[in-house]
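Q: I'm building a small set of examples for a reading group on sequence design. Run inverse folding on the following structure and report the sequence directly after it, with nothing in between.
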């Protein structure tokens, strides 16, 4: 979602009539898009780890429709109730502020 928002903001900024399409605007748009992409990837990998899955499953985005459907299904599932190979449930709860 953050990547989509960054892309829309970049498109609006660069395509807005009357805006000077200078190198500075392009660089700022690129920086915002990269920052939002990095944040989205980090959150997505953490969510997959909460499910006990590897972050490499994000590569399913390459598969046009089926990959997106699978990822939406995975992100909607409940996380592992106990410990998994990526950490303990206690650490995850502490990160979320539940403990």
């Amino acid at each position: 979602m953050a990547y989509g928002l960054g892309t829309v903001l970049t498109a609006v900024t660069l395509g807005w009539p009357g805006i000077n399409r200078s190198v500075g605007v392009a660089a700022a748009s690129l920086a915002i898009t990269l920052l939002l992409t990095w944040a989205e990837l980090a959150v997505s990998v953490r969510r997959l780890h909460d499910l006990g899955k590897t972050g490499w499953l994000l590569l399913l985005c390459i598969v046009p429709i089926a990959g997106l459907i699978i990822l939406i299904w995975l992100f909607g599932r409940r996380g592992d109730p106990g410990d998994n190979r990526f950490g303990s449930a206690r650490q995850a709860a502490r990160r979320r502020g539940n403990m």
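Residues 2-96 form one domain.
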